[in-house]
Specification:
Length: 268
């Protein structure tokens, strides 16, 4: 008898950068490695798309970033059709807007629905809480930390039996210092404008307020005031993704603290 090959469908707005996006890629790798079939629905483009196909996944261009209610309803029908045509066994949603379409489609075709709750969404009113709550409606809800799991229970009353805590991992092979050639390090230092033997304080995160860049800059200012920042450079590596006002505020904070010689904004 032929072995059944499960088909797992993941949906995310875009495959550009971020923990949710990288988690999708890693899940594609794991599913394919285990003998399954991995579909990924996302807007066309994105720097991580090539990694999905390189891992053996199937990237399906899809208006997954849409927040227009009519488009989201049209997405329900499109997902239902795709599930039936491709014999999808499970749908995994990683972001709120596409999760609503995926939830309705999963219920219509009666396939398991999984969500990953990647962070603490802001909730300023009941409507926002309802919108965010789709991420707690999975048959299984994956939380990226115990803190996130507690938040899901507190906000939505989700049963802990439905929550699985899976921490984000680190690829120890990719980040093995022994695998990084000295000339690559030298080229990176040159690109960042950091001379040897200066120490690097690196924050690798997209430029958004809840990542805490202003806290790091404030800490650097305190170190400078205490005479403990000499020979060190703070490197902020990450995309702004259109948050120009936020980035301007960070530059202003750096200038006000007199930290221009000690801080670099290097992009992704």
């Amino acid at each position: 008898m032929a072995q059944i090959r499960p088909t797992i469908l993941q949906i995310i707005p875009r495959l550009d950068t971020g923990g949710a996006e990288l988690s999708l890629v890693e899940m594609v790798e794991a599913v394919v490695r285990a003998g399954g079939r991995a579909l990924a629905l996302a807007e066309p483009g994105g720097r991580l798309g090539a990694r999905v196909t390189a891992a053996g996944g199937e990237l399906v261009p899809f208006p997954a970033a849409a927040k227009n209610p009519l488009t989201m309803l049209a997405n329900v029908r499109a997902i239902v059709r795709l599930v039936r045509e491709q014999a999808v066994d499970l749908i995994h949603a990683r972001s709120r807007a596409p999760a609503w379409s995926a939830l309705l489609a999963a219920r219509r075709v009666r396939v398991p629905f999984v969500t990953t709750y990647h962070g603490a969404y802001g909730e300023t009113n009941a409507a926002k809480r309802f919108y965010n709550g789709v991420m707690a409606r999975g048959d299984v809800v994956i939380a990226n930390s115990v803190y996130t799991a507690d938040l899901i229970v507190r906000r939505y009353g989700t049963s802990r039996q439905r929550i699985a805590v899976i921490h984000r991992g680190v690829d120890t092979h990719a980040f093995d210092p022994a695998r990084i050639a000295p000339d690559r390090l030298a080229a990176l230092r040159a690109r960042w404008g950091v001379d040897e033997p200066a120490r690097i304080i690196l924050q690798a995160a997209r430029l958004t307020g809840w990542k805490g860049h202003s806290v790091l800059i404030d800490a650097a200012a305190r170190l400078k005031a205490a005479g403990k920042l000499e020979g060190a450079v703070v490197v902020l590596a990450g995309d702004a993704q259109g948050r120009d006002a936020y980035v301007q505020g960070l530059h202003a904070q750096v200038a006000q603290a007199g930290l221009e010689p000690h801080v670099r904004f290097v992009g992704h």
